[in-house]
């Protein structure tokens, strides 16, 4: 004896071609919006302003809306003033070197100076690198603790991570530095990478 | 001889009872109550200088974040249960929109677009476009996808169903935004009150446009581009309200001095929500009338 099971269910609703395409167009819109949104972000975040100094022979592109100054003991420095706390900075410095000096000597001088001026200065790493134009350089990563110089602002000191790229060329050492709050270093690093790729000396 | 009085009134004609919950009164009640709660918290904090700390502050913050969902439960979900033919998927839409927003859209759009790093520094037009193509589009598409994949097409029986489901999705999405706001920005009660209302109002205004689009796709035969256009429009509404509201809420910077006017931002958001609601309600009514006329014309 066979048993027949009859399943009673609602008939499926057939979508019309217009309804199907209506849904597909929303998906296409979503993909386009993501592409346009990412493009808008990149054009704003990675927008740059040209900088040129024929006296020292440097051309660079620094991030848009960053504040530039050249009044210190450096060729120029740009800072992101929109950041709260420690202002992320990139700095280019040039020091004359004689033929006897090696990159190691320059590094040791930098370490000696900074250990006297920067609080809790520590060197994390030193390694040889190659710049975008195949120039041999050395990269040094270090940290120190920065406190706000304004006595009217009460703030907790910030741990700053610093990266120096040192290249010796034409009797001078070019030191390109990147300083950022250690907590946001990774997040800010792509801007320095772009800066380093575009700098020409 | 007895005198019998007899009424001359005709017997009552039994009206056909509308079997579904009426959506617009629920939405109006929810938003009016939320407006009142947020305004009360704002005035109590700012004008009466009531300062809460510790557990009482936490309780008020929690109550503020929970308010839109509690109001939705009271005015939508519970009234839905009392309807002759209830909309069975409201709770599913709420849960899925909460999960989708919290697990996918909000973290993904924050990581991908990083709007806080660049959009606040842009000029107004760029900000409107930027918000429309980033957070606005993400929110619009999420709300659409949640409603589409949980209700379409079987659970949409009348046009008002789209409003019911999209407004539910908007409550879920806004709840996640409110939660992220309090976790990321700390605890300033008056700011939280205004933000809770703004998030809910923006989300709801967007959902009106999406609901109209999906209603047309389901019950009429519009151009296939309509739904995408309505999604883009709702994203644009997000961009416009967010940009103009933040311009009002944050104080300007000028030689004459600047002062923040959060109340203007609060009222502006409410006015835009009402304006979008009136326009979409008019479109809904027109579409329904058009359908009724078409049905009458076809009947023998």
Folded structure, characterized:
The complex is a heterodimer of chains A (201) and B (300). Chain A is α+β, with helices and mostly antiparallel strands and 201 residues long. Chain A folds into two domains: 15-45; 48-198, 3-Layer(aba) Sandwich (Protein Transport Mog1p, Chain A). Chain A has three helices and nine strands. A seven-stranded antiparallel sheet of chain A has the order 3-4-5-9-8-7-6, with helices on both faces. The model of chain A has no long low-confidence stretch (mean pLDDT 88). Chain B is mainly alpha-helical and 300 residues long. Chain B is built from nine helices and no strands. Chain B has helices at 23-46, 54-82, 90-113, 115-118, 124-151, 159-185, 189-219, 226-249, 262-298. In chain B, helix 1 (23-46) packs antiparallel against helix 7, helix 3 (90-113) packs antiparallel against helix 5 and helix 8 (226-249) packs antiparallel against helix 9 (262-298). Chain B is globular, with a radius of gyration of 22 Å. The chains are: A alpha+beta (201), B mainly alpha (300). Chains A and B meet through helix 1 of A and helix 4, helix 5 and helix 8 of B.
Number of domains of chain A: 2
> N-to-C terminal Cα separation of chain A, in Å?
94 Å
What would you call the quaternary organization?
heterodimer
Extended strand count of chain A: 9
Question: What fraction strand of chain A?
Answer: 35-45%
CATH fold node name of the largest domain in chain A: Protein Transport Mog1p, Chain A
Rg of chain A (CA only): 27 Å
Order of helices and strands of chain A: HEEEEEHEEEEH
Q: Any idea of the CATH class of the largest domain in chain A?
A: Alpha Beta
Say which CATH homologous superfamily of the largest domain in chain A is assigned.
Mog1/PsbP, alpha/beta/alpha sandwich
By DSSP (H or I, 4+ residues per run), the number of helices of chain B equals 9
